[in-house]
Amino acid sequence: MQNLKDIRKRIASVKSTKQITQAMKMVAAAKLRKVQNRIIQLRPYTYKLKSLMEVIVASAEGELENPLFEKRELKKVLIVVISANRGLCGAFNTNVIRKAEEAIEEYRKQGIEPDIYAIGKKASFYFGHHDYKLIKQNHSAIEKVSFEQSKALAQELIDMFMSGEYDRIDVVYNSFKTPGSQLLVHEQFLPIEKPEGKDSSDMNFIYEPDLQTIIDRLVFGYMLYAEFFFYLLDYSHFI
Questions:
Q1: Which of 89, 126, 198, 213 ranks highest by number of CB atoms within 10 Å?
Q2: For 142-154, what is each residue's pLDDT tens digit?
Q3: Which of 188, 238, 237 has the alpha carbon at shortest distance from 40?
Q4: Domain ranges of the chain
Q5: Is 107 designated active site?
Q6: What is the mean pLDDT of residues 72-83?
């Protein structure tokens, strides 16, 4: 049986541990708020870029030429799967992996075996140890999310598409809604879908320097880079 001195030491130890965990909780909460603010601030920018692109493309009436809009016969497909580097976040990683598997099965039904580009250790480990074609992996991109790093990744995917290595590139990821809720997303990254049915008849644009240059700069310089940054930013509160 413990004596009084041992019990007092135990109480002091528990109190000390409580103080440490409270400090960790405060740091985590501050980090989460910072990430949430970044996501909330970026969303209107990304959505507005997409909306602007839709209106401009619709107003061009087929005059545009950009290889990133080119639809090809599907022979080679790349699926980018974004997961966290660590666990201890419920079904966060499991759900995104399951969503990716569903996408892979849909392509297999069409006679296409997609390649996998895994971003995050959890996706890399899973697809590397199962019957899938894991062609590349990146663990550092979500450790410290930055626009420059996401831009480099987006450019890598653009180069893969432009070179003809892949006819379509999809991204599977968790989209942040609230700290306890995420939306599973599987969407086409490339080629860019041309908007249909967008009414621009009441809009009269003056382009400077010219329409093609503006489209190229929007697509390459802003929209795709910002979109991929948005994908990674959704994960920065789980690393």
A1: 126
A2: 877 888 888 899 9
A3: 237
A4: 58-64+71-233
A5: no
A6: 95
